[in-house]
Design brief:
With about 300 residues, this protein is of the alpha+beta class. The protein contains 5 helices and 18 strands. About 15% of the residues lie in helices and about 30% in strands. Strands 11-18-17-13-15 form a 5-stranded mixed beta sheet, with no helix packed on it. It has a 4-stranded antiparallel beta sheet with strand order 6-5-8-9, with no helix packed on it. The chain has a 4-stranded antiparallel beta sheet with strand order 10-12-16-14, with no helix packed on it. The chain starts with 16 loop residues before the first strand and ends with a strand.
Length: about 300
């Protein structure tokens, strides 16, 4: 059976590519690749990368921004890693450690993150174990259904827990705002620590960003003129100060070449999913060349090339 016909699988090519009219994107681009047309890896590439052992992988499928979710309620998401486990922290307070994946057929399956409260009711709120477990259950239930859509049997159960632990509606609202919804409240800093052989081997921190930057890479800095011209691929990501991709930064980027190179890809492109790029080529002469990449409000980046 071809891969693209297997169940719900949609990944059947490595890269996005230009194609024909029968694609809903409207721009005649097939976006089925695990990398974009400029070879920037998408999130899906992490599922493949984490099956190897040579390079550590740690990627998170959510930016943890509450504004991305209805009622500021962050739903289940996944962490992609080939580490032994991942420890989650909120504002430096330990939440929970995740190690078991539901995807047993994979050497390293994605870890579903379905609990952002974890041990915080013990460590931060100082409830005893029994109360922490019960109140944690109430908050998880409210996260699942919302206040306005609790099934009748859940309403009765939640009310019973509130009575038992003398939990007023005002206090429950306070806890809900602190651990489930936090609109307009204190900014949260989430940290994911990858654990291998008992040691922290990588960390990823997600928090509201203060500034964006251009992260630019090229496939080659030294280009060689021979029987024909030489080329280099330029890959651009819009990132925050913690090197996290800014997927909603649909920012136009401008490419300006000087010296003995010229742009042969787009001279203006928009960052789709926070990523884009272009291509440059030699012009038949030895020497040097520069490519300036700029965007409004961001610090420009200049790449220098040597043409031999």
């Amino acid at each position: 059976m071809p891969l693209w016909e297997a169940g719900n699988t949609r990944v059947f090519c490595m890269f996005d590519y230009a194609t024909h009219k029968d694609f809903g994107s409207g721009d005649r681009i097939c976006y089925h690749g695990v990398m974009d047309a400029f070879r920037n890896p998408k999130l899906a590439a992490s599922v493949y990368a984490m099956q190897g052992e040579e390079k550590l992988v740690l990627e998170v499928s959510s930016m943890m921004d509450i504004g991305d979710y209805p009622a500021s309620n962050i739903k289940d998401f996944f962490v992609f890693t080939n580490a032994d486990s991942v420890k989650l922290y909120k504002n430096d307070a330990f939440v929970k450690e995740y190690s078991e994946s539901e995807f047993k057929a994979l050497a390293h399956g994605p870890l579903r993150i379905d609990d952002l409260i974890g041990d915080l009711l013990r460590g931060v709120e100082d409830y005893d174990d029994e109360a922490a477990i019960a109140i944690h259950d109430v908050l998880q239930t409210l996260k699942k259904y919302g206040y306005e859509h609790l099934p009748p049997f859940e309403m009765v159960r939640v009310a019973g827990i509130m009575r038992k632990y003398k939990l007023s509606r005002e206090k429950l609202n306070e806890l809900y705002g602190r651990y489930v919804g936090n609109w307009g409240g204190e900014a949260r800093v989430w940290r994911f620590d990858a654990i291998k052989d008992g040691e922290v081997v990588a960390s990823k921190e997600l928090k509201p960003s203060a500034r964006l930057y251009l992260d630019v890479k090229t496939s080659a800095r030294i280009l060689k003129e021979g029987d024909t011209y030489d080329m280099a691929a330029i890959r651009v990501r819009v990132i925050d100060e913690d090197n996290n991709l800014a997927p909603y930064a649909q920012i136009p980027l401008f490419y300006e070449a000087s010296g003995e190179i010229e742009v042969v890809g787009p001279k203006v492109s928009v960052a789709e999913g926070g990523m884009t790029g272009t291509y440059v080529r030699t012009t038949g002469k030895k020497g040097t060349g520069c490519l300036k990449i700029s965007a409004e409000g961001l610090t420009p980046v200049t790449l220098e090339f040597v043409i031999e």
